[in-house]
Amino acid sequence: MPLDSNYTPAVEDEEEDDILDDDLPGPSSRGKKGGIAGNKANGKGKDPGRHAWEAEYKKSWDIVQEDESGSLESAVESLLARGRRKRALMADTPLRRSIIRHLFIILDLSESMNDKDYRPTRFEVILGYLRSYVVEWFDQNPLGQIGIIMMRDRLSEVLVPMGGNPQEILSVLSDKRKLEPSGEPSLQNGLVMAKGGMSHLPTTSSLETLIIFSSISTADPDGPSTIHTVLQDLVTNEIRTSIIALAGEIKICKQISERTGGKFGVALDQDHLKDLMWETIPPPATTISNPTTIGVRNALAAASATGKNGVTGKTPVGDLMVMGFPIQLPLGGETLCACHGLLKKGGYLCPRCGSKLCDVPTDCEVCGLMVVSSPHLARSFWFLFPVANYGVLAVEEVMDSSTSDTCAGCDVEFPDVTSIEEGVAQVEDGVSPTGRYRCAKCRNDFCADCDLYIHDTLHTCPGCSQ
Ligand SMILES: [Zn+2]
Ligand SMILES: [Zn+2]
Ligand SMILES: [Zn+2]
Ligand SMILES: [Zn+2]
């Protein structure tokens, strides 16, 4: 499996800014402009001295406008168009993404989490979001693993060790009594613990932390190591650190995320907080890994040197990884597992050393082999080989050619071309005036609903796979 090693966060940032500058106002684009992507995009504001996160709050319901006849149809259509356009811009930028991710969520459980500026409290809101975040994260990163660290009373504690089982994390997150906020957080202790928890991981995987920081200060231990030396360690170990602050912009937080290639954002309200969190779900655009000299890697690099790579001008270096597909055990008697040392029913056998593991994906506790199931591997290809965007069809194109009258996906009849008025054809770019979207490969036409379903859920073109 090819993996790259050129870590160029600057390139990624540029591309994102391009997308954002073109983006239309809306709940999510407001979020990005205001926070994570930096202050650049907000430069058009009236007062240049203001911070991005102080930007005016835009109400999502103001964006939806009725047309002359009092209908919301056109407004809804333009919202859909916006989504399509955003996706088109995303898909057209050639990016390398890492599919194997290890993420530590560092949760600030200091007293400030009891603040009631989020209803009912910050604590409740964060826990609720985290539960859906974890599910969504594993859905999009089937080969990834998540661990959770909490910071309270100036200490940090591993709440959930790094693992690939969302159920385990969800059950810990629903136990509120164990998570009671108290004291002050220590950002330094949290980061040191995350770094330690990832020290054994191979450089082929993307190491990340996501810090949800509610406090406005950090109470770090007195000693030779300071938060700045920890930051230097994070940079050397290439641990991408993203921070979402609830209270305000904190200089050290911003510094940490900027220097490690992560994202920093200040949540303006609950929806914005969700936007910021969800932005960290898709796989990051470049992996952070040091090239090691392996014969195969050099061969791959030599092969790809002939290909064109316009992003950085440097040759992406390929890499091979060892993975194993485990044997699933029947739910018979209880046996001892290698990962927890507990008697459990079911589980999987490592194909290399034969030890029993509770869940996949995981790294075998005994031989260190990465054990994945094939559906997980297949799903992780969504982002590597996305379905190309379907082209919009103009009225003339449908008139000219002998096209089918029904959608190739759901068999719904397309609207009659002759009845389409000139005015309707002038809708925002991205929306087909004929209601048809054509796959460039298989030349099948799909309706708008099928188009969304194929690109967002199915991730494969039904026409091409026939
Ligand atoms: Zn186990
Ligand atoms: Zn093993
Ligand atoms: Zn359809
Ligand atoms: Zn197709």
UniProtKB/TrEMBL annotation:
It comes from the Eukaryota. Transmembrane segments: none annotated. Residues 102-281 form the VWFA domain. InterPro entries: C1-like_sf (IPR046349), Ssl1-like (IPR007198), TFIIH_C1-like_dom (IPR004595), TFIIH_SSL1/p44 (IPR012170), VWF_A (IPR002035), vWFA_dom_sf (IPR036465), Znf_C2H2_type (IPR013087), Znf_RING/FYVE/PHD (IPR013083). Residues 437-460 form the C2H2-type domain. Belongs to the GTF2H2 family. Component of the general transcription and DNA repair factor IIH (TFIIH) core complex, which is involved in general and transcription-coupled nucleotide excision repair (NER) of damaged DNA and, when complexed to TFIIK, in RNA transcription by RNA polymerase II. This is General transcription and DNA repair factor IIH.
